[in-house]
Write a structure and sequence with these properties.
This protein is of the alpha/beta class. The protein is built from twelve helices and ten strands. The strands form two sheets. Strands 2-3-4-5-6-7-8-9 form an eight-stranded parallel β-sheet, with helices on both faces. It is globular and about 55 Å long.
Length: 320
């Protein structure tokens, strides 16, 4: 829209598909919101299909996972990630939007939830982000393993809303509440952009809502030129105006979104003063444990909400 501030892409080369997706997000600011649904590594279509069964519509944004948390061995995680890639390629072909996250285990540790939530001291974290240490070498090996699948999506011309190392302002992940968190972000960014040439990624920086147990946003914000979109995770129906306004202020013109939610934002939120969010994504089974079928149908039929067919039309208006 003519009155929307447009920020240039954060690095000089970007795939046409990623530019198309970014343009689409900018056009959404203040105009409407894309629906989203997260699914898990082991069953990547379970809850988008639930949404379709209940409402007759698919969400616009499909959330995927690339991190293993169930103790998968190398062969199993390879097969699961390959399945995710093929599913995402098919989703993109329909006009739907792909977002991916990465629940990373502590570098060098087994792919288990306890190693994602490992209690890690600042000194231990410092070793992870210091070149030459064994922890740093393990970090790079883990990043390289994930890059294999992002490269496959790049080869298939699939743009990805890439949402790594999220909720860093809370203390429950090994990368959380670390004074030099931005070094971790920068290591991944430089490796994926400069070494792997991943030009299909739209970089989404995603803290948790700054509740009492979480820090404010700014301390963990990477450089302005390493973030395309800012998102916030909101659970417990806690849609405070300040979460929206402080994120929008930090974004300084860039799109903002709800990266994860339990209860979906109601139409009173979406049609009120929190209208800068460009998508929301309900977390897994919470689509039915935290929301009723009636609520789901209501939100999917709201005039401000876009489903997958709407997203396909939106992307056609911003051709690559």
């Amino acid at each position: 829209m003519s009155d929307v501030k447009k920020i240039e892409p954060i690095h000089p080369y970007r795939s046409p598909e990623a530019l198309e997706l970014l343009d689409s997000l900018y056009s959404m600011k203040g105009q409407g919101i894309l629906t989203g649904q997260h699914d898990f590594l082991e069953n990547p279509d379970q809850y988008v299909e639930y949404t379709k069964r209940v409402t007759g519509k698919y969400p616009a944004v499909h959330g995927y996972e690339l991190g293993g948390i169930l103790g998968q061995n190398a062969e199993t995680i390879q097969k699961q990630r390959e399945s995710i890639v093929q599913d995402a390629i098919a989703w993109n072909a329909t006009g739907g939007i792909v977002t991916m996250m990465y629940h990373a285990a502590y570098p060098g540790a087994s792919l288990e939830w306890k190693n994602v939530q490992r209690q890690t001291t600042q000194q231990e974290f410092n070793r992870v982000v210091t070149p030459g240490t064994e922890e740093y070498k393990s970090l790079i090996a883990d990043l390289d393993n994930v890059a294999i699948y992002l490269k496959k999506l790049q080869a298939a011309n699939v743009p990805v809303l890439w949402r790594p190392y999220h909720e860093m302002n809370g203390g429950w992940f090994w990368w959380g509440k670390k004074s030099d968190y931005t070094k971790l972000w920068s290591i991944m960014y430089e490796r994926y952009v400069s070494v792997y040439g991943l030009d299909n990624l739209v970089w989404v920086w995603n803290p948790n809502a700054p509740k009492p147990e979480c820090d404010a946003y700014p301390a963990y914000y990477p450089r302005f030129d390493m973030v395309d979109v800012l998102a916030v995770d909101i659970y417990d129906n806690d849609y405070k105006q300040s979460y929206h306004d402080e994120l929008d202020a930090l974004a300084d013109g860039k799109p903002i979104a709800i990266g994860e939610n339990g209860q979906m934002p109601g139409t009173d939120v979406l049609e009120g003063n929190q209208n800068k969010y460009v998508w929301f994504m309900t977390w897994g089974e919470m689509i039915h444990t935290k929301n009723t079928e009636e609520q789901l149908r209501k939100i999917m039929n709201s005039n401000r909400v876009l489903d997958r067919d709407d997203a396909a039309e939106l992307r056609r208006k911003h051709p690559k």
